[in-house]
Write a structure and sequence with these properties.
Layout (H helix, E strand, L loop, with lengths): L1 E4 L13 H5 L11 H11 L1 H5 L18 H24 L5 H9 L2 H10 L9 H11 L9 H12 L13 H7 L16 H4 L7 H10 L16 H24 L5 H4 L5 H16 L9 H14 L11 H20 L1 E6 L2 E6 L1 H19 L2 H24 L12 H8 L5 H13 L3 H11 L16
Antiparallel strand pairs: 1-3, 2-3
Length: 470
């Protein structure tokens, strides 16, 4: 994968400031921290980050196994992203990256990268992508850009999170907000580009304070064009690659230990499991060809086999011994190091180029597909996901009715949601956005408990769900 990286705007150094700092003319308390260090600390202490400890990554713990949740994943993405930024700067210091590429690399602040990595999944709703789809379906009749997890993350740090009584959101710097924008464009209902990327993923909600925050974060970048995707910042590229490789490596680790992904059998070309893996991939591709990776199935199978063989993957099922645990940790560490080193920034004529080696991109994709076919697509999880869809869909219906302008149902809303609703004009779009903010900020336990209470299946005081969002 190759991308041209845009140079840093000439006045970028002077503009690494927050909106409140800018509005106050730069007057504020002196601090031993840089503004980027402050960003990182604010996200770390944000209760929206803590909520992710009760949001699953792929599936909830079962049979005593401890799987990564969204909080553990975010912490590891932050560590990997920061280390990659520091690695690139060390290469520049040793003159292994030179010229404009070195200038760009050295302009990236590792604390801002870490802050963006910590914040990248804040908008992830309970039950993951299942809920994301349902919220989009439920909200889109009322507001054009409905719900998107990345846009919700941006909304949380700029609008919803509470730091103190004087600031809106976390008051993060322009730099950190820019690094958080994995998709630095708005939703296009009828995407003019091949593949529908603008229609499926976007980075902010159009209109109001969300759009103003986006414009603030992207000051100095070219304006969005209809037939061209805007450039990401290098910090956002670092964050995105850290997310991809961390997800791939650690989820495979989780489900090999749980006996779901047979890594030990997939390294042997003569093992019948190779044929089974091929068949599972074929089934997933045939069911939804538009979302299947752009690789031949045999290439994905051979990629997994080679990586397990060449990098010392497990040779037998996981035995839960100290030796087996150490071997698996070393295998994961070798993969992460390999994929970090595959991320290269250099000069190409007058341009700065980001290159992620094709082998690394294909390998990370293949590792992700292991979890898809052996875990996500298994019938037991599919049944659970149908129930989760019902919970989210019915919660949206209950709360949307409670936001009616006649105010007869407002006493059913948590205080924070009621307060936000009362600051709107009570349009259908306003109401849908308040409900989306409420539901997407729940933990999975809270979502199930609230649903039970709405259905009369439980008792106890109503949960102030927005306390879990700030």
């Amino acid at each position: 994968m190759k991308k041209t990286l845009r140079k840093v705007p000439p006045d970028w150094e002077e503009k690494r400031i927050s909106r409140q700092w800018e509005a106050s003319g730069g007057v504020g308390k002196k601090s031993h921290r840089t503004r980027q260090e402050r960003d990182r600390d604010r996200v770390l202490y944000c209760s929206a980050l803590h909520r992710l400890g009760s949001v699953t990554q792929v599936t909830a713990p079962e049979s005593g196994y401890s799987f990564h949740n969204r909080l553990g994943h975010s912490l590891k993405v932050a560590q990997v992203g920061r280390r990659n930024a520091e690695r690139l700067q060390k290469l520049a210091g040793k003159k292994k990256i030179r010229g404009a590429a070195a200038d760009l690399v050295c302009s990236v602040d590792p604390d801002a990268v870490e802050a963006a990595c910590l914040a990248h999944d804040l908008g992830h709703p309970p039950f993951g992508h299942i809920a994301e789809t349902v919220l989009q379906e439920e909200a889109s009749p009322y507001v054009a850009d409905g719900f998107e997890g990345n846009a919700q993350s941006f909304r949380i740090v700029t609008q919803l999170a509470i730091r103190d009584g004087e600031h809106v959101g976390l008051d993060l710097t322009r730099e950190t907000l820019d690094y958080l924008l994995k998709y630095p464009w708005r939703h296009w209902h009828k995407d003019p580009m091949k593949g529908g990327k603008r229609e499926r993923k976007w980075g902010y909600y159009e209109g109001g304070d969300d759009e103003e925050s986006f414009k603030f974060a992207r000051e100095g970048w070219p304006k969005e064009e209809k037939l061209k995707l805007p450039d990401r910042s290098l910090g956002a590229e670092i964050m995105d690659w850290a997310d991809d490789l961390t997800y791939a490596v650690h989820d495979v680790d989780d489900f090999f230990r749980a006996g779901r992904v047979p890594l030990d059998r997939l390294r042997n070309p003569d093992d019948p499991e190779i044929k089974r893996f091929t068949a599972l991939l074929t089934e997933v591709r045939d069911r939804n060809p538009n979302e299947f990776p752009d690789y031949e199935i045999n290439d994905l199978v051979e990629t997994v086999r080679e990586r397990l063989s060449d990098d010392g993957g497990p040779e037998e099922p996981y035995r839960h011994t100290n030796a087996a645990r150490a071997d698996l940790r070393e295998f994961g560490s070798r993969l992460i190091t390999r994929y970090l080193e595959a991320f290269k920034v250099g000069n190409a004529g007058k341009s700065v180029k980001l290159t992620i080696t094709p082998d690394a991109v294909r390998e990370v994709t293949a590792l992700k597909m292991l979890v898809v076919v052996y875990v996500i697509q298994r019938p037991g999880l599919a049944v659970v996901q149908q129930g989760q869809k019902k919970v989210i869909r019915e919660l949206f219906d209950y709360y949307f009715k409670a936001t009616d302008p006649n105010k007869k149902g407002h006493h059913l809303l948590p205080p924070g949601a009621k307060e936000r609703l009362e600051a709107t004009k009570y349009t259908a779009g306003d109401r849908a956005r308040v409900v989306v903010d409420l539901i997407s900020g729940l933990t999975e336990t809270a979502a199930v408990q609230l649903h039970r209470r709405w259905c009369g299946w439980g008792s106890g005081p109503a949960l102030d769900a927005t306390a879990l969002m700030g």
